[in-house]
Design brief:
Elements: E1 2-6, H1 10-22, E2 29-33, H2 36-45, E3 53-59, H3 67-76, E4 85-89, H4 94-102, E5 107-110, H5 115-128
Parallel strand pairs: 1-2, 1-3, 3-4, 4-5
Helix pairs in contact: 1-5, 2-3
Length: about 130
C-alpha cells in the first residue's frame, strides 16, 4: 500500500512520514505533494502501478490549493474513492473540521502532534479500508 502526504512544508512531510512509521504503518511508497493541485495530479496517475494509494494525509493551510479545496476537488472528480483522508492542521475550529468532514475527510489531527495521536487516528482507518 502507498500513502500520499500533502503539505507545503517539506520538513512537515518528513515529520508526518516518520510519525506514520512510528505508529507501525508500513508503506511500499510514500508520495508527497506540496499543495492540493500536485496531490490531484498524483491521484490521477494512481493505479498505474501495482499498489494503490491507501491513505491520504493533508494539511489544510497551503498555497495554490488548500486542503479543503483539495478534498472538494477530489470528491467532485471521483479520485481515490474509499481511500481514508486525515487532515493535519493548526485549525481546530469547528467550521474547518465540519467542512473537511463534509468534503470526505475521515478525521483530523491538530499540530503539534505525537506518533501516538497519529496511531490512534490513522491506524483504525487504514485497517477498516
Amino acid at each position: 500500500m502507498r500513502a500520499l502526504i500533502i503539505d507545503d512544508s517539506a520538513v512537515m512531510r518528513k515529520v508526518i512520514e516518520r510519525a506514520l512509521k512510528q505508529a507501525g504503518l508500513e508503506f511500499t511508497e510514500v508520495l508527497q505533494a506540496s499543495n492540493g493541485e500536485e496531490a490531484l495530479e498524483a491521484l490521477r496517475k494512481d493505479g498505474i502501478g501495482p499498489a494503490k494509494i491507501g491513505l491520504i494525509i493533508s494539511d489544510i493551510n497551503m498555497p495554490v490549493m488548500d486542503g479543503l479545496q483539495f478534498l472538494e476537488a477530489r470528491r467532485d472528480q471521483k479520485l481515490a474513492p474509499g481511500v481514508p483522508v486525515v487532515m493535519i492542521t493548526t485549525e481546530g475550529s469547528e467550521p474547518f473540521v465540519l467542512r473537511a468532514i463534509a468534503a470526505g475527510a475521515q478525521g483530523y489531527i491538530c499540530k503539534p502532534f505525537t506518533a501516538d495521536q497519529v496511531k490512534a487516528r490513522v491506524v483504525p482507518l487504514v485497517q477498516a479500508a
